[in-house]
What does this fold into?
Amino acid sequence: MKKSLTIILLTFLFVACNKPAGELVGMGAKQSFNEAQPYGMVFIKRGSFMMGANDQSAIGAINDKSINVTVDAFWMDETEITNDKYKQFVVWVRDSIALRSLVMAGKDEYRMKFKNQTDDTSPESARLNWSAKSPWESKDEEVKEVLESFYYDGAKILGGKKQMNPNKLRYTYEWLNYDQAALPSNKFNVNTGAYPANAKVRVDSSFVDENGIIKNVTIERKLTSRRDLISSRIVNVYPDTIMWLRDFQFSYNDPKMRMYFSHPGFANYPVVGVTWEQCQAFCQWRTQLFNNAHAVGGQDYRLPTEAEWEYAARGGRRLGLYPWGGNYVRDGRGCFLANFKPMRGSYTDDTGATTMKVASFYPNDYGLFDMAGNVAEWTSSAYNVSGSTLVMDMNPNFQYSAKNSDSDVLKRKVIKGGSWKDIAYFLQCGVKTYEYQNESRPYVGFRCVRSYNGE
It folds into this structure.
């Protein structure tokens, strides 16, 4: 009996695996693919909702009309990107520049570290130990010169320690200008295998001039290959720490201004003082970090669209006013449900004054923390007061890839969620405002999303 069952099983497996010769059978890919959950992210299933403000404007503005839209599934960070997580990016950039400089100086012992930084699955194998010994005390003069170049020249400052010059921490990233490829005059001809003879594109480019200053320019060039659609930008990745003082003058924010990003006490606070362009750079680096560590790469990390952010904030509640679903900012015991500006400026009534540690309040029904208050969040969408009349109802996104030469009004990006300085109105899921993509604020942070591979 056992022998018969074995023969039957082997026959079944043989028939199942023996694909007919000369027939269309595909390349042998698995019938199903289950994507592993990205670390620290929450899965947001696809669905539909009413996108737009549910309440009249608190400032007398005319709200964009609400529309019913559908959003595909995606992954989203359960909290805003913290100082500690963003610092991993800053340290990677610092080590990358230092390792490249050391290799170019002929220090072959650093060549493997430099290779590991982009190829290896272990980031620790590419780290430089900056704390074991002060770089200016190195016995190797060339190493000393390279590492000291990251610090301010002159006398020791602030407690007798040399301070790192954040202007040295620069990252270059690239992106494809799909908006230029989609122009009717630039349509690729599949019959001839070429772009039209008159095809041209406007793209961004960056360079560092002789004085060490980053210059961003917009250039126009002939479109002959896909490579011509690529824009590039060089950004300083270190957050702006002066904005605490600049945006809130006549207040004593100096301690937080100096220490907010660097001090370990603020490690789990949301990173602020980052521009939309710095966030784009972070997303590109995070994608590279993931793909280098996995045989099968994932979708790019990116900023959420306005629709994705609002859909996730509602937590599956189709008409939820706030992320927690209710119509009020207090719970049944009278406690505030987010970090914002309660009443007439009693900031600490919600247990926080300015920013607070992420996840200090309960998550919404999707498991996402701080979708209201603490810091407002960047989205990838361009700001337009009548955006809902311009977008499709399937994965809507009013997107404009502003060029460096464009006017400021074209560089407005949607921010959502309200912050520690905002009144309750701005905490509503459907309310949006804007900030300029090249500006940084002490009340604007971000979180990433990643599209889901599959149904």
Q: What stands out?
A: Residues 314 and 323 are 5 Å apart (CA to CA).
